[in-house]
Amino acid sequence: MTSSEDIVVQPPHSATWLVHLDRTMWVGGVRGLMLQALHPIAMRGVWQNSNFQQDPFGRLRRTADFVGRTTFGSPAEADEIGRRVRGIHKSLRVSDPDTGRTHRVDDPELLLWVHCAEVSSYLEVARRGGLGLTERQADSYLREQRRSASYVGLHPEDVPGSCAEMDAYFKQVRPALRVTEEAASAVRFLLWPRLPQELRALTPGKPAYFPFGALCYYTLPAWARRMYGVLPEVPQATVTAGLKAFRLAMNSLPEPLHDHAFMPSTRQMLRAARERLGAAGYDTAKGLRGLTDPRRWPKGLAA
């Protein structure tokens, strides 16, 4: 029997599937961008080398594509997007007006910050929203995400692989963080984004986005919210309740409907993953999310 690791990068029995198939990922993704913006060089790298100012939502969708391919894509697809990302990063530079120095975008320190801000946001938001992960599963998730870090050029052994290691990393890096003009602008964009061309039909409903953006902001660590000071504080119990309501509503959406939020190429990759898994004996009648249930795995594999 073909191993699931030969079909998709992260197998259905991994902690990564539990986190990355949870719809709180949308909150985690925006929270991750807000957190990433607190690193001055990393934020300026985004500001100087992308169209983030015009299309912050597009950056979120491209991140979703990378996460999807390094989770549900085939090993070949993950290797291909990894080569593409590393090639782009290799050619880009960041100018620091404070010091006059020029930095490489693929500086391991910057790559590590972006990775940690992203995956810690996915994990923390999913758990707070009600995904029942044990401490062991949470550690497993971060350990599994070392593989995704390798696709952007990091050495897995240099990446936090447990909750304790991730906490230690943030404690170490916090003195280097601050709110630059670019970071403040980024948060404003993320609270009130410009929709990409293919989603402009949703513009009349744009005011409904602000509560979502605010929810993402309020899930930031208290120290990050104090640094930004963009919105007045609200009771965190209210934030948790809002996050749980968002998760319940989003997780109730049928998978084909939910997947329309992704880029067409991402949707095509997800369809191909379902087909490969189905051909290998997995019961994909309930989509990829259904495969978190071992009863839908090939006979004998669940044991």
UniProtKB/TrEMBL annotation:
InterPro entries: MPAB/Lcp_cat_dom. This is Oxygenase MpaB family protein. Residues 17-235 form the ER-bound oxygenase mpaB/mpaB'/Rubber oxygenase catalytic domain. It is an enzyme of class 1 (oxidoreductase). Keywords: Oxidoreductase. It comes from Nonomuraea guangzhouensis. Its EC number is 1.-.-.-. It comes from the Bacteria. One of its GO terms (molecular function) is oxidoreductase activity. Pfam families: MPAB_Lcp_cat.
